[in-house]
Task: structure prediction
Amino acid sequence: MADEELVEEQTEQEPVAEEAEPERLLPEQPLLAAIVEPHESATWVAADDEWVVIVSADEYHSLAQAAKNNGFDTFIDLCGVDYYRARPRFEVVLTVLNYSEPMRLRIRSGAIGDEPKLDSVTDVYTGANFYEREAYDMFGIEFVGHPDLTRILMPDDWEGYPLRKDYAVGSVPIQFKDAPKVQ
Result:
């Protein structure tokens, strides 16, 4: 009988409440919070006078637009990065500036795949035009929606992307003085 009561007690336990997801941590700085909050994938890091927001490729363009709408209207820089063994391998770093609240913002986003793609931000920041072309030319990162995504530094018939870490650079023998002659 005691066993039956024990079994009955075990089956009549209250259902376990599902754990609620932890509340998303937002920046205390209201300007940055307004940019980060609508973007689910956005994470952020604060430094002295600079904020870094890391966002997924699908939210990259909308976060850049949100930054522009919130006073980050000065384009500073855009560059590509090849982390080679990391995933995602390629990343784009966009740097913008807000003069009214002296603040710099870096937006980092991974470009996925061996043929990496990311939305162009030239419609948001016109100054990104040549920088996106350079990242395309040197790393092979395609900026979808770019008005003229052509090579800017390398000849048009150049094969490969010279700043990728797996790019074969070749070699030229160098003769140093006082060294035996190379045959």
Remarks:
- The chain has four helices and seven strands.
